[in-house]
Amino acid sequence: MKLPGAVEFRGPRAVVTAAAVLVAVALPLAACGSSGTSSSSSAASPVAGGSPQSSSAGAMGSGPVNVLYAGSLVDLMQSQIGPGLKKASGYDVEGFAAGSNALATQIKGKVHQGDVFISANPKVNTTLQGAKNGNWVSWYATYSSSPVVIGFDPKSKFAKELRTKPWYDVVTEPGFRLGRTDPVNDPKGKLAKQALTSQAKKTPALSKLASSDAGIYPEETLIGRLQSGQLDAGFFYNSEAVAAKIPTVPLTGQALKAVYTVTVLNRAPHPSAAIAFVKYLLGPKGAADLKKDGYNLVAPPKATGSGMPAVLKSVISGS
Protein backbone atom coordinates (compact mmCIF):
# COMPACT_ATOMS: atom_id res chain seq x y z
CA MET A 1 0.00 0.00 0.00
CA LYS A 2 1.29 3.46 -0.86
CA LEU A 3 0.07 6.90 -0.02
CA PRO A 4 -1.43 8.47 -3.18
CA GLY A 5 1.15 10.71 -4.82
CA ALA A 6 4.07 9.51 -2.73
CA VAL A 7 7.45 9.11 -4.40
CA GLU A 8 9.62 6.05 -3.96
CA PHE A 9 13.11 5.49 -5.28
CA ARG A 10 15.19 2.37 -5.17
CA GLY A 11 18.77 2.34 -6.40
CA PRO A 12 19.26 3.77 -9.88
CA ARG A 13 15.59 4.16 -10.77
CA ALA A 14 12.70 6.01 -9.17
CA VAL A 15 9.21 4.58 -8.98
CA VAL A 16 6.49 7.21 -9.10
CA THR A 17 2.91 6.35 -8.19
CA ALA A 18 0.04 7.09 -10.52
CA ALA A 19 -0.76 10.48 -9.05
CA ALA A 20 2.76 11.64 -9.76
CA VAL A 21 3.05 10.36 -13.33
CA LEU A 22 1.77 13.60 -14.79
CA VAL A 23 4.69 15.46 -13.32
CA ALA A 24 7.41 12.88 -13.84
CA VAL A 25 9.01 14.92 -16.59
CA ALA A 26 9.10 18.01 -14.41
CA LEU A 27 10.53 16.10 -11.47
CA PRO A 28 13.49 14.12 -12.82
CA LEU A 29 14.66 11.53 -10.37
CA ALA A 30 18.37 11.25 -9.83
CA ALA A 31 20.25 8.01 -9.53
CA CYS A 32 21.03 6.80 -6.03
CA GLY A 33 23.43 3.97 -6.80
CA SER A 34 22.69 0.38 -7.65
CA SER A 35 19.87 -1.27 -5.74
CA GLY A 36 21.05 -3.43 -2.89
CA THR A 37 19.18 -6.53 -1.80
CA SER A 38 21.63 -7.95 0.73
CA SER A 39 21.50 -7.10 4.41
CA SER A 40 23.93 -4.71 6.07
CA SER A 41 27.45 -6.01 6.25
CA SER A 42 27.79 -5.42 9.99
CA ALA A 43 25.21 -7.28 12.04
CA ALA A 44 23.43 -5.61 14.95
CA SER A 45 20.48 -6.17 17.21
CA PRO A 46 17.47 -4.03 16.24
CA VAL A 47 16.35 -3.77 19.87
CA ALA A 48 15.23 -0.24 20.83
CA GLY A 49 18.14 1.87 21.97
CA GLY A 50 20.70 -0.73 20.95
CA SER A 51 23.93 0.32 19.24
CA PRO A 52 24.92 -1.55 16.10
CA GLN A 53 28.39 -3.01 15.90
CA SER A 54 30.74 -0.65 14.11
CA SER A 55 32.69 -1.66 11.06
CA SER A 56 36.43 -1.22 11.15
CA ALA A 57 37.72 2.24 10.29
CA GLY A 58 37.46 2.92 6.57
CA ALA A 59 35.45 -0.26 5.87
CA MET A 60 32.61 0.00 3.34
CA GLY A 61 29.15 -1.42 3.92
CA SER A 62 26.68 -2.86 1.46
CA GLY A 63 22.95 -3.25 1.10
CA PRO A 64 20.01 -0.90 1.57
CA VAL A 65 19.00 1.74 4.09
CA ASN A 66 15.26 2.44 4.01
CA VAL A 67 14.63 6.14 4.55
CA LEU A 68 11.10 7.50 5.03
CA TYR A 69 11.31 11.26 4.57
CA ALA A 70 9.28 14.45 4.20
CA GLY A 71 8.26 15.10 0.60
CA SER A 72 9.97 18.49 0.59
CA LEU A 73 13.31 16.66 0.65
CA VAL A 74 12.93 14.77 -2.63
CA ASP A 75 15.58 16.72 -4.57
CA LEU A 76 18.06 16.76 -1.70
CA MET A 77 17.72 13.03 -1.06
CA GLN A 78 17.74 11.81 -4.64
CA SER A 79 20.28 14.19 -6.13
CA GLN A 80 22.72 14.66 -3.28
CA ILE A 81 22.41 12.64 -0.08
CA GLY A 82 21.64 9.30 -1.74
CA PRO A 83 24.54 9.35 -4.21
CA GLY A 84 26.85 10.88 -1.59
CA LEU A 85 26.13 8.15 0.96
CA LYS A 86 26.66 5.44 -1.65
CA LYS A 87 30.07 6.85 -2.52
CA ALA A 88 31.12 7.41 1.08
CA SER A 89 29.81 4.23 2.73
CA GLY A 90 28.62 1.76 0.11
CA TYR A 91 25.00 1.77 1.33
CA ASP A 92 22.12 2.28 -1.10
CA VAL A 93 19.35 4.68 -0.08
CA GLU A 94 15.93 3.22 -0.75
CA GLY A 95 13.71 6.22 -0.12
CA PHE A 96 10.00 6.82 0.24
CA ALA A 97 8.67 10.38 0.37
CA ALA A 98 5.32 11.69 1.59
CA GLY A 99 3.85 14.16 4.07
CA SER A 100 5.40 13.74 7.52
CA ASN A 101 2.11 13.00 9.28
CA ALA A 102 1.11 10.51 6.62
CA LEU A 103 4.46 8.73 6.96
CA ALA A 104 4.03 8.49 10.74
CA THR A 105 0.61 6.92 10.25
CA GLN A 106 2.06 4.41 7.80
CA ILE A 107 4.92 3.55 10.17
CA LYS A 108 2.43 2.81 12.94
CA GLY A 109 0.30 0.81 10.53
CA LYS A 110 3.38 -1.15 9.39
CA VAL A 111 2.72 -0.13 5.80
CA HIS A 112 6.41 0.73 5.43
CA GLN A 113 9.31 -0.83 7.33
CA GLY A 114 11.85 1.95 7.65
CA ASP A 115 15.31 2.38 9.08
CA VAL A 116 15.34 6.19 9.23
CA PHE A 117 12.52 8.71 9.58
CA ILE A 118 12.94 12.38 8.63
CA SER A 119 10.14 14.77 9.55
CA ALA A 120 9.50 18.44 8.77
CA ASN A 121 7.94 18.99 12.21
CA PRO A 122 9.36 17.75 15.54
CA LYS A 123 5.86 17.18 16.92
CA VAL A 124 5.29 14.37 14.44
CA ASN A 125 7.88 12.29 16.31
CA THR A 126 5.71 12.33 19.43
CA THR A 127 3.02 10.41 17.53
CA LEU A 128 5.49 7.52 17.26
CA GLN A 129 6.66 7.55 20.87
CA GLY A 130 5.42 5.41 23.75
CA ALA A 131 3.79 2.01 23.96
CA LYS A 132 0.42 3.21 22.66
CA ASN A 133 2.15 4.44 19.49
CA GLY A 134 4.26 1.34 18.95
CA ASN A 135 7.50 2.63 20.50
CA TRP A 136 8.90 3.43 17.06
CA VAL A 137 10.80 6.53 18.18
CA SER A 138 12.84 7.02 21.36
CA TRP A 139 14.94 10.00 20.29
CA TYR A 140 15.34 12.41 17.40
CA ALA A 141 17.83 15.07 16.32
CA THR A 142 16.79 18.53 15.14
CA TYR A 143 19.25 19.55 12.43
CA SER A 144 17.86 22.29 10.15
CA SER A 145 14.97 24.60 9.27
CA SER A 146 13.58 26.42 6.26
CA PRO A 147 11.02 29.26 6.04
CA VAL A 148 7.75 29.01 4.13
CA VAL A 149 7.70 31.17 0.98
CA ILE A 150 5.53 31.67 -2.08
CA GLY A 151 7.15 30.03 -5.09
CA PHE A 152 5.82 31.05 -8.48
CA ASP A 153 5.97 30.20 -12.17
CA PRO A 154 8.03 32.95 -13.87
CA LYS A 155 5.92 32.42 -17.01
CA SER A 156 2.66 32.98 -15.16
CA LYS A 157 0.63 36.05 -16.16
CA PHE A 158 0.66 36.94 -12.46
CA ALA A 159 4.46 36.77 -12.09
CA LYS A 160 5.02 40.52 -12.40
CA GLU A 161 2.35 41.26 -9.82
CA LEU A 162 3.82 38.76 -7.39
CA ARG A 163 7.16 40.52 -7.66
CA THR A 164 5.67 43.96 -6.99
CA LYS A 165 2.62 43.43 -4.77
CA PRO A 166 1.98 41.63 -1.45
CA TRP A 167 1.28 37.93 -2.05
CA TYR A 168 -2.10 38.09 -0.31
CA ASP A 169 -3.38 40.72 -2.75
CA VAL A 170 -2.37 38.69 -5.80
CA VAL A 171 -3.47 35.14 -4.92
CA THR A 172 -7.08 36.26 -4.54
CA GLU A 173 -7.31 37.63 -8.09
CA PRO A 174 -9.72 35.86 -10.49
CA GLY A 175 -8.13 32.91 -12.24
CA PHE A 176 -5.13 32.65 -9.89
CA ARG A 177 -4.11 29.01 -9.32
CA LEU A 178 -2.55 28.57 -5.88
CA GLY A 179 -1.20 25.19 -4.79
CA ARG A 180 -0.63 23.81 -1.30
CA THR A 181 -0.49 20.49 0.49
CA ASP A 182 -2.96 18.67 2.72
CA PRO A 183 -2.92 20.18 6.24
CA VAL A 184 -3.89 16.79 7.67
CA ASN A 185 -1.02 14.81 6.15
CA ASP A 186 1.71 17.41 5.80
CA PRO A 187 3.14 20.07 8.15
CA LYS A 188 3.64 22.45 5.21
CA GLY A 189 -0.03 22.21 4.38
CA LYS A 190 -0.87 23.04 7.97
CA LEU A 191 1.44 26.07 7.87
CA ALA A 192 -0.09 27.22 4.57
CA LYS A 193 -3.57 27.06 6.05
CA GLN A 194 -2.31 28.91 9.12
CA ALA A 195 -0.89 31.65 6.89
CA LEU A 196 -4.13 32.00 4.95
CA THR A 197 -6.29 31.99 8.08
CA SER A 198 -4.11 34.49 9.91
CA GLN A 199 -3.83 36.89 6.98
CA ALA A 200 -7.59 36.62 6.34
CA LYS A 201 -8.16 38.73 9.46
CA LYS A 202 -6.67 41.63 7.51
CA THR A 203 -7.50 40.40 4.00
CA PRO A 204 -11.03 38.91 4.16
CA ALA A 205 -10.83 37.64 0.58
CA LEU A 206 -8.45 34.93 1.82
CA SER A 207 -11.12 33.36 4.02
CA LYS A 208 -12.59 31.41 1.12
CA LEU A 209 -9.16 30.02 0.18
CA ALA A 210 -8.39 29.09 3.77
CA SER A 211 -11.60 27.07 4.15
CA SER A 212 -11.52 25.46 0.71
CA ASP A 213 -9.94 22.17 -0.34
CA ALA A 214 -9.23 23.56 -3.80
CA GLY A 215 -5.57 23.58 -4.81
CA ILE A 216 -4.52 20.84 -2.39
CA TYR A 217 -2.08 18.30 -3.86
CA PRO A 218 0.36 15.64 -2.60
CA GLU A 219 3.59 17.29 -1.46
CA GLU A 220 5.70 15.23 -3.85
CA THR A 221 3.84 16.56 -6.91
CA LEU A 222 3.56 20.26 -6.07
CA ILE A 223 6.87 21.37 -7.60
CA GLY A 224 6.17 19.42 -10.78
CA ARG A 225 2.72 20.95 -11.11
CA LEU A 226 4.19 24.43 -10.80
CA GLN A 227 7.00 23.78 -13.26
CA SER A 228 4.62 22.27 -15.81
CA GLY A 229 2.41 25.37 -15.75
CA GLN A 230 -0.51 23.81 -13.87
CA LEU A 231 -0.16 26.38 -11.06
CA ASP A 232 0.68 30.06 -10.88
CA ALA A 233 2.21 29.77 -7.41
CA GLY A 234 2.30 27.61 -4.31
CA PHE A 235 3.43 27.40 -0.72
CA PHE A 236 6.94 25.93 -0.51
CA TYR A 237 9.84 25.75 1.87
CA ASN A 238 12.64 28.02 0.71
CA SER A 239 15.07 25.08 0.60
CA GLU A 240 13.02 23.08 -1.90
CA ALA A 241 12.47 26.19 -4.03
CA VAL A 242 16.24 26.83 -4.08
CA ALA A 243 16.94 23.24 -5.12
CA ALA A 244 14.33 23.36 -7.90
CA LYS A 245 15.39 26.87 -9.00
CA ILE A 246 11.90 28.26 -8.43
CA PRO A 247 11.65 32.06 -7.94
CA THR A 248 10.06 33.09 -4.66
CA VAL A 249 8.65 36.02 -2.75
CA PRO A 250 8.54 36.27 1.06
CA LEU A 251 5.44 35.28 2.94
CA THR A 252 5.01 38.86 4.14
CA GLY A 253 3.23 39.13 7.46
CA GLN A 254 4.07 35.56 8.49
CA ALA A 255 7.04 33.85 10.13
CA LEU A 256 6.46 30.17 9.45
CA LYS A 257 9.03 27.46 8.86
CA ALA A 258 9.77 23.76 8.63
CA VAL A 259 11.94 22.27 11.36
CA TYR A 260 13.62 19.07 10.23
CA THR A 261 14.41 16.12 12.48
CA VAL A 262 15.97 12.71 11.88
CA THR A 263 15.90 9.49 13.88
CA VAL A 264 16.77 5.83 13.57
CA LEU A 265 13.53 3.93 14.05
CA ASN A 266 13.41 1.30 16.74
CA ARG A 267 13.49 -2.23 15.30
CA ALA A 268 15.14 -0.89 12.14
CA PRO A 269 15.95 -3.86 9.87
CA HIS A 270 19.29 -2.34 8.79
CA PRO A 271 20.63 -0.55 11.90
CA SER A 272 24.25 -0.24 10.76
CA ALA A 273 23.16 1.30 7.47
CA ALA A 274 20.81 3.64 9.36
CA ILE A 275 23.66 4.83 11.58
CA ALA A 276 25.84 5.43 8.53
CA PHE A 277 23.05 7.46 6.92
CA VAL A 278 22.53 9.72 9.93
CA LYS A 279 26.29 10.25 10.34
CA TYR A 280 26.55 11.25 6.68
CA LEU A 281 23.50 13.55 6.72
CA LEU A 282 24.66 15.37 9.84
CA GLY A 283 28.36 15.27 9.01
CA PRO A 284 30.43 17.73 6.94
CA LYS A 285 29.35 16.45 3.52
CA GLY A 286 25.66 16.36 4.38
CA ALA A 287 25.89 19.81 5.96
CA ALA A 288 27.48 21.16 2.78
CA ASP A 289 24.58 19.80 0.70
CA LEU A 290 22.07 21.32 3.12
CA LYS A 291 23.74 24.73 2.97
CA LYS A 292 23.86 24.57 -0.83
CA ASP A 293 20.09 24.09 -0.92
CA GLY A 294 19.43 26.96 1.46
CA TYR A 295 18.66 25.12 4.69
CA ASN A 296 19.35 26.92 7.95
CA LEU A 297 21.47 24.52 9.98
CA VAL A 298 21.12 23.78 13.66
CA ALA A 299 24.81 23.55 14.54
CA PRO A 300 25.45 21.21 16.15
CA PRO A 301 22.22 19.20 15.79
CA LYS A 302 20.33 18.82 19.05
CA ALA A 303 19.01 15.51 20.37
CA THR A 304 15.68 15.09 22.14
CA GLY A 305 14.68 11.95 24.03
CA SER A 306 16.82 9.03 25.19
CA GLY A 307 18.49 5.94 23.80
CA MET A 308 20.43 7.61 21.00
CA PRO A 309 23.25 5.28 19.84
CA ALA A 310 26.55 6.38 21.38
CA VAL A 311 28.25 6.24 17.98
CA LEU A 312 26.19 9.29 16.90
CA LYS A 313 27.48 11.55 19.67
CA SER A 314 30.17 12.82 17.33
CA VAL A 315 27.56 14.52 15.13
CA ILE A 316 24.75 15.24 17.61
CA SER A 317 24.75 17.21 20.88
CA GLY A 318 22.27 17.23 23.73
CA SER A 319 22.22 13.47 24.32
From TrEMBL:
Q: Name one GO biological process term.
A: molybdate ion transport
Q: What is this protein called?
A: Extracellular solute-binding protein
Q: Where is this region: Disordered?
A: 36-56
Gene3D superfamilies named among the record's database cross-references: Periplasmic binding protein-like II (3.40.190.10)
Family of the protein in this entry = Belongs to the bacterial solute-binding protein 1 family. WtpA subfamily.
InterPro entries hit by this protein: ModA/WtpA
Task: Name one matching Pfam family.
Answer: SBP_bac_11
PANTHER family associated with the record: MOLYBDATE-BINDING PERIPLASMIC PROTEIN, MOLYBDATE_TUNGSTATE-BINDING PROTEIN WTPA
GO: which molecular function terms?
A: molybdate ion binding
